[in-house]
Design brief:
155 residues; alpha+beta; two-stranded parallel sheet; two-stranded antiparallel ribbon; 54% helix; elongated
């Protein structure tokens, strides 16, 4: 019932779309009451209402003190759910920190990464501290600019 795939549940799995398969797999995983739940990109398929239903169930598991490994590339999902984030790149741990500190650095890296060609990507290795410092410097510059504008407006 959680999977919400209707009568397709009685059809062979090989006839399922990727979204239907993930819905069923998630529903099965959460109904065995696991101590450790691994969710690997499961919320990247399906609609928003199913994703929110899954997040609600994961929050319930977290409140029960269960361990959840949540694998995603979606920064908003990380911010919405994770206390700590481990950033992996090509099998290497780039950083491990709070979601609030890790995600801006990850986003800054992916913004740069998407603009590179294959050869440039092979030479670029992410360094969390470098990107975190870059983001913090950008934030500091914005705050300084705002303070300057506010000071100029004040009598």
């Amino acid at each position: 019932e959680f999977a919400d795939i209707g009568d397709f549940v009685y059809q062979p799995v090989k006839t399922y779309s990727s979204g239907m398969f993930v819905r069923l797999a998630f529903a099965l995983a959460i109904n065995v009451d696991p101590e450790i739940l691994i969710v690997d990109e499961a919320l990247s398929v399906g609609d928003a209402s199913f994703a929110e239903k899954c997040m609600a169930r994961m929050r319930h598991f977290r409140a029960e003190g269960k361990t959840i490994f949540f694998v995603t590339h979606a920064p908003w999902q990380m911010l919405n759910f994770c206390d700590r984030v481990m950033w992996l790149h090509q099998g290497r741990v780039v950083g491990y920190d709070t979601a609030e500190r890790m995600i801006p650095a990850y986003v800054a890296f992916t913004r740069e990464w998407t603009q590179l060609d294959h050869l440039q990507r092979a030479q670029l290795l992410p360094d969390y501290e470098t990107y975190r410092a870059q983001v913090e410097n950008q934030q500091r510059a914005v705050w300084q600019q705002r303070a300057k504008e506010t000071a100029q407006k004040s009598p």
